[in-house]
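Please, structure for the following, as C-alpha cells.
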Amino acid sequence: MTAVRIIYFDIDTLRADHLGCYGYHRDTSPNIDALAAEGIRFESVHASDVPCLPSRTALATGTFGTRNGVVNHGGVAADLRVEGADRQFVSSTMRSSWAWRLYTAGFHTASMSSFPFRHSASWWNHGYMEAANLMRGMGVERAPAVTEHVVDWLRRRCRADRWFLHVHLWDPHTPYNTPDDFGNPFEGDPIPAWHTEEVRAANWERPGPHSAQEPWGFTPDEWGPPPPRQPWDLSSMDEVKAAFDGYDVGIRYADDAVGAIVSELADLGVLDETAVLVSSDHGEQFGELGVYCDHQGADQATTHIPAVLRWPGLEPRVQPGLHYHLDLAATVVELAGAVVPTDVWDGESLAPALHAGTTAGRDHLVLTQGAWTAQRGVRTGDHLYLRTFHDGYHGWDDEMLFDVAADPHEMTDLIDEPLAAAAADRARSVLDEWTAAQLARSGAEDPIDTVLAEGGPYHTRGHLPAYLQRLRDTGRSGWADLLAERHAAEADPGRWADFERTRRRLAYDLMGIAEPS
C-alpha cells in the first residue's frame, strides 16, 4: 500500500538508547514506543555527518558531507560547494533534494522547523512548498509552539491526498530547559548503570569543552548561568543525575508532542493511512570520550540515532543491519512511489527489503564530524574505529578502536591490543579507500582539510588561549601542556581576538539577551 500522507518527526539530538523501544530503563518515550510497536524499528541507523548542520544537509541533498562540502558549523565548510558554470536554472541540489523528489511526485511538501533559520541553511527548504520558521531565539522554542502550528496545518490540510510534513522538535537539545511546571518524571529513577562514580571521577580529570568540569562549554558559565536542569559541573553523582534527568525530561516533553500530533491525526480520521517516521539528526554524549551534554565526536553516542517507520501495509518488525540516515530518505521516497536519484544520492533504499520482509544492511559505515572536532569513524558489525584530525582540545589519541558490541559507551580503547589489530587494519583501509572515492566523485578537496586550514572546527576556534589557563587553574596542567604543544598555532591569542569578539556578539544576539560588558 502506498501511503498518501507522510509525517516526519525530526527530534533534535535524540540518541537511540534513551528510548524505551531501544531498551532504555526510563519511560522517556511512550508515544514513540507505541509507534515502534506498530511499525518498523531500525536497530542501527547512523547519521553520516554530524552534528546538526552537516547531518541535515546530507539528508536534504542525499549526499555525504565529503561530497556536498558541509561538515562544519562555520567557515567555508558550512556552505554547499558552488556548482560553477554547469549550474542550471534549477540547481542540481534542488533537483535531487528529497523534498523535491516528493514534490515532483505530486506531494504537497511542508516543513515546520527552526533549523534553516538557525543555521542559515536555505538548502533545507529546497523542494518544500511551505516552510515555517519556528525559531524563537537560540534554543528557546519549545514543543507546544511547534504543536500549535502543526495542529493548525493538519486541520486545514490533512484530509487532502498526497502530503509530506516535516515536524522539527528541538527539546532534547542543550540547553536542557523544559519548563519547570513539567516537573521531573525521572526524579526517582536511577541513571544508566554503566555511568558509575569511577567513570565520573576519570572524566573529571579530562579536558575539553563540555567535559565534566565544564559541561556548559569551555567554562561552567560560558553563556551565563546554565539553566536549572543543567548542572554547573559534574563534581558528584548528584550532578551527573541532574544532567541525565535534564536530557531525558526533554525527550519526554518532545514525546508528549508526538503523542498530541498523532492523536490529532486519529481525531481527524487520517491516521490509518498516514505514514509516520520518527528519527533525529544526531545523538548526545554523556561521558563517552569525556564529553557531556553535547555531540562532539563521530562516535557511537553521537551518530547512532533512532529510526521508527510506521507505514500502512508494512508489517511491524525490527530491522537489523547498519544503515545511514540517508538510506531512510531513499526508502521513504521509493515507498511513496517517487523516483530515487540513484546516480546522485549516497543513500540506498530499503523499500524492496521492507516489502519482502527480508533483512538488509551495509558492510560498514563511514561517519564524519567537523564542527566540534575533526574526526572520522568506521562502524562495522562490532567495532568502531576513530581517526582524529583535530581533537577539539579533548586530548584524544590520533586513532582509537572500540568493541561497541561489548562496550557501547567506549570505555576501553583497543587500538594497541594485538587481538584487535586485524579490525584496526581493516578499518584503516576502509577509511582510506572511502575518502579517496568520495573526493574523486566530488572533484574537490576534503572539507575536513578546509576545517583544519581555517584553524580547526568552528566551535573551538579562539578558545584555546584562555582555556589553557583554565586547565592550569583547575589542576589539569598536564593536559594544558599537551594541548599547547599539539595546537601551538591556535594557542596564539592575537590570532583569534577579532574572531572571538564577533562570534560572542552574534551568539548573544541570537539568544536575544544582552552581552555582558
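The first helix runs from residue 30 to 38. Residues 102 and 244 are 38 Å apart (CA to CA).
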